[in-house]
Amino acid sequence: MKRAAAAMEPDGEIRSEFATLLGKDLSKIGRIRKHDDAVALLDVAMAVTGKNSNDAGKDLRCVFRRYPELQQNMLKFKFPGRGQRDTPIVKLAKVIEIIMLLPGSTAATLRLEAAKLIVRYLGGDLRLIDEVRHIRHVQEQLALQERI
Q1: pTM to 2 decimals?
Q2: Per the structure, how many domains does the chain have?
Q3: How many Cβ atoms sit within 10 Å of the Cβ of residue 131?
Q4: Which domain holds residue 66?
Q5: CA spacing 20 to 30 A to 53: which of 3, 41, 98, 102?
Q6: Residue 88: in which H helix or E strand, if any?
């Protein structure tokens, strides 16, 4: 695994994006630490599962035992602060993939929404065009991140 280096960025915007993605109130989303274009995987797992760091970490380890290939592009970053350890961080596309494999009702809801979206796409739902245009800035950012 590679080690990332650079300064940490504020997490306010990313928390809001995850609250929207997960269909949760922002107050229910704890901190989500971010570094460059990657987020702390444990923070995301805690937001998705609603569990503490130990139990969310167990869920992540279970996912990685079943799908070891998910760890390929994972970086380690030591966030500033006393007692911090190397923390796995991943880019957004990988985070979404991992969320889909986590247990719990939030991940199940996200899987269901993804399935509905795929069915709409395969069925040629033209309303998707307007929806994509509306969030084009997000897709451009994701495309840029995938090239890095």
Answers
A1: 0.72
A2: 1
A3: 12
A4: 2-147
A5: 3
A6: strand 86-91
